[in-house]
Amino acid sequence: MAQERWSSRLGFILATVGSAIGIGNFWRFPYLVGVNGGGAFLVPYILALLLCGLPVLMLELAGGRHFRGGVLGAFRAVRPWAGWLGAFIALWALVLLSYYLVVVGWAFGYMVHSMVGSLPSFADFTRGYNSLFFFLAMGAVTVGIVVLGVRRGIERANRVMMPILFLVVLGLAVYGFTLPGWRAGVSFYLSPHPQALANPLVWASAFGQVFFSVGVGMGVMVTYGSYLESGEPIASSSLWVVVADTLSAFLAGLMIFPVVFSFGGEPSAGPGLAFDTLPRLFRQFPGVTGEALAVPFYLLLTIAGLSSAVSLLETALVGVQEGAGVSRGRGIALLSPALFLLGLASALSYSGVSLRLGGAPVLDILDNLTGLLVLPLGVLGTAVVLGWLVPFRLMEAEVQKGFVGWSGTWLVRLAVPATILAVLGATAVQRLGG
To answer: How much is the pTM?
Structure first.
């Protein structure tokens, strides 16, 4: 049972926003908009937010608060067998965290290199043991924040990190409009291509990105909901989280694409954008301008990554506490070595060792497995347990009495399972066709 509580509604919103905003906001969302119809992509994305992202977020927070437990404890309170699903989700949060911290380490490592006037290529950066060293550093910071607890650690850290994050992304977005290629960048980013809306894979991409971006299906929001006071409004708080998350992702495109188009980068670089394309472009800036821009950019990625990493570790920690009946301190003592051992394989897969399984880096295998299968099934399982197995009136009242709670609960019951099956089907067709 969770014992701590958020100190205020603001503290809860900032912590939840911090969990939702991750590194993917700053390279994946802009890239998807650019290659999936430009401004037209925002249509399925906003629909996905309203039909799935926001309702699932509300129900996860409501479930955590009502049952006063993390994903394992809340699911077990609904049905004993559902506790096994909750345990798996909590366990996978640790697996996800183990390779996610490697990527956070890359962001921090590039920030350090930028501060000393060096912007290496990604191949040079990962040739030695930078991935391992910076993974260990970011893992230690994440553990240190969680050790301090909900109020003194997670909430206090996000009260500092989130304002900095938004100031940096807003400042870099404004600076982007001073560059010579800003018109071409914004045109690529936001020019609507309505014909893309006829492509089912564009819709699948939009719904998939919503699940990633809002952070549902991973047990995090159930865990954070368990720390929420009974009188706090869930519906309006959830809306604030969704708006802040979407705003940060939208501003990221206004920040990145003017740079890409001003210095001859490839706008469809995708995952390589942050750690391959942009360092090369920053090196083309005159004098020390490139390093001066790179430092806040990679600080932004580091903060976004750390805030999400903290929420994943907290989710896994509460799962261990509920499953093994141990104290918070003992849970951290059990999880920390497991986290570093799990992350070792992912870190070494992007190092001089070049650890592979079946020819692919371990990090890539885990990331694909999470995105293509585990996360969608986690959302589906959450919709079944909290949407169908909990009495309808109970969850409706917990979210918000009236139309909002009623419609949100029905959307989780009907729209979310249908969407998940459609996304999985579209992904399977794409994979088989490719």
So the answer is: 0.94
